Amino acid sequence: MQINPVRKAVIPAAGFGTRLFPATKVVKKELFPIIDENGRAKPIILAIVEEAISAGITEVGIVVQPDDVGVFADLFKNPPTSELWQKLSPSNQEYSQHLQELGKKVVLLTQEEQEGYGHAVFCAKDWVGNEPFLLMLGDHVYKSHIDKSCAQQIVELYAQLNQNVVSLTIMPAAIIHKAGCVTGVWQELNSILKITQIAEKPSIDYARQNLRVEGMAEDEFLCIFGLYVLTPKIFDYLGESIAENSRYKGEFQLTTCLDQLCQAEGITGYAIKGQYFDTGLPDTYRQTLIDFR
């Protein structure tokens, strides 16, 4: 069977960032700075785009609010003013040129109304077209534990299996109510899982009864790491959810549609050899600033 290469990545970045208010009243959370391993301060969204490119992605669609197109375009599309350019170090001048080249691969998509994560993904439907795509969270950055980036690991697994792939990490029971959680059967122990169910932010009691995975500690569960490679079939389920006004806590979510996709096409779970850093909360953002470099 012919396998379509994964060429496109989608990054939803159209939320309000309410958990980081009041800073997000003036700066989008995706534009908050982090410090990379080279000591360079960069907006979070830039680190995510570079992660996508590391996996061989050639086009990156960032879903933003209409009023925010200008600020994202300024980052990725517009060169520094001549005055600023002259004041940059040679290293930063070189990086500025890299940023302009990167910007040629970035497309800005819009979400007219903020109706949830699943709705933001659906806004990329026409741009993605009929091909698989890499989906990335707009407030997570990643650090691989091996010589392949986290995004590259999951894209290469899709190429091997020709099936939807969701990245996984281990979480303690105390925090699984904040994440999508899965269960299934190991195909390769502690690495590749045939997923049988995906649950959005389950209670501990529900997880203990329904989401156990063989070999896991009693109060540890497999949760979504924040990287996905999905076929365009996901848009069918997202479209149905929106048409039927099927919401979770007032918003259109991705996880319910992922579970439908799992039943229809199958989804493989992959325990990423790496670490994610959540920048969407004050305390986790603070810890990211300490640990990411």
From TrEMBL:
Tell me a Gene Ontology molecular-function term this record carries: nucleotidyltransferase activity
As given in the record, the signal peptide range reads none
Q: Which InterPro entries match?
A: GalU_uridylyltTrfase_bac/arc (IPR005771), NTP_transferase_dom (IPR005835), Nucleotide-diphossugar_trans (IPR029044)
- Residues in Nucleotidyl transferase domain copies: 8-286
Which Gene3D superfamilies does the UniProt record give?
A: Spore Coat Polysaccharide Biosynthesis Protein SpsA, Chain A
* Top class in the EC scheme: transferase
* Database matches in SUPFAM superfamilies: Nucleotide-diphospho-sugar transferases (SSF53448)
Top-rank taxon, per record: Bacteria
Q: Which reaction does it catalyse?
A: alpha-D-glucose 1-phosphate + UTP + H(+) = UDP-alpha-D-glucose + diphosphate
Q: Which PANTHER family match?
A: UTP--GLUCOSE-1-PHOSPHATE URIDYLYLTRANSFERASE
Family according to the record: Belongs to the UDPGP type 2 family.
Name of the molecule in the record: UTP--glucose-1-phosphate uridylyltransferase
Q: Which organism is it from?
A: Calothrix parietina FACHB-288
